[in-house]
Amino acid sequence: MTSSSVVLRQTAVGCAILAAASAVVVSLAGHPILGVGFGAGLLVGSLNGYLIDGLLSRGAPFVAASLARIVFFSSLVLMAAVVLRNNAWAVALGIGVAQLVMMGVSIRRGLKR
To answer: What mean pLDDT do residues 80-86 have?
Structure first.
């Protein structure tokens, strides 16, 4: 198993655990829509690494792959804005936190070497 696939898998698992926990905790605090939005953002954001890996392995230029991901995630946040209205920021926040999770997993893996 390659190092990048381990990082991607651990990121997805970590984000799934955080998504479930945040949905429960925030729902219990009386804001279920925020919990679901944040959890959805975490789950979608955890796909970022898989997207870049897939695009680059198919020979896509890095700039084009990055632009495609920005368009994809921005479109998801815009769709969330239509559905969730004032609570769409939770989805964007979840996507951002997923990137922090991936960074943390990568740093942790790098320090183990």
So the answer is: 90
61 exposure class (CB count in 10 Å sphere: 0-12, 13-18, 19+): exposed
Q: How far apart are CA 42 and CA 38, in angstroms?
A: 6
Structure tokens at 61: 């230029």
Entry field: residues in the chain = 113
* Whole-number pLDDT of residue 1: 67
Cα–Cα distance measured from residue 81 to residue 9, given in angstroms and rounded to the nearest whole number: 29
Cα distances (angstroms) measured from residue 41 to each of 3, 17, 30, 58: 25, 13, 19, 26
- Its pTM surpasses 0.85: yes
Contact indicator for 11, 5 with CB cutoff of 8 Å = no
Residue 3: pLDDT band with limits 50, 70, 90: confident
Which amino acid, one-letter code, is at 23?
A: A
Those residues whose C-beta lies under 8 Å from the C-beta of residue 19, and which sit 6 or more positions away, are 38, 39, 40, 42, 43, 94
Phi, psi for 47 (deg, rounded to 5): -80, -10
